[in-house]
Amino acid sequence: MSNLGVPAPSLFGGNVVWAIAYHFGFPVMVVIGLGAVLWTIAHDIHLRIT
Which of 4, 5, 18, 41 has its CA 20 to 30 A from that of 26? Predict the structure, then answer.
């Protein structure tokens, strides 16, 4: 694991997220984050219906 020289907030799980963001770009991280949130909401609604 190479150090990118950017201190990673513990909230984001450390250097792994920074490494992914460094390679793929923050827009991709935002899309993945929104997708995860929408998936969680949809799953929760599905559980409430059934």
Answer: 41
The residue to which tokens 């969680």 are assigned: 40
Residue 46's CB: how many other CB atoms inside 10 A? 9
Q: What is the pLDDT of residues 37-48, one digit of tens each?
A: 999 999 999 889
Are 15 and 4 in contact by the 8 Å Cβ rule? The answer is: yes
Q: For residues 5 and 3, give the distance between their C-alpha atoms in angstroms, rounded to a whole number.
A: 5
Chain segment 8-25, per-residue pLDDT in tens: 454 455 677 777 777 777
Residue at 25: amino acid letter:
G
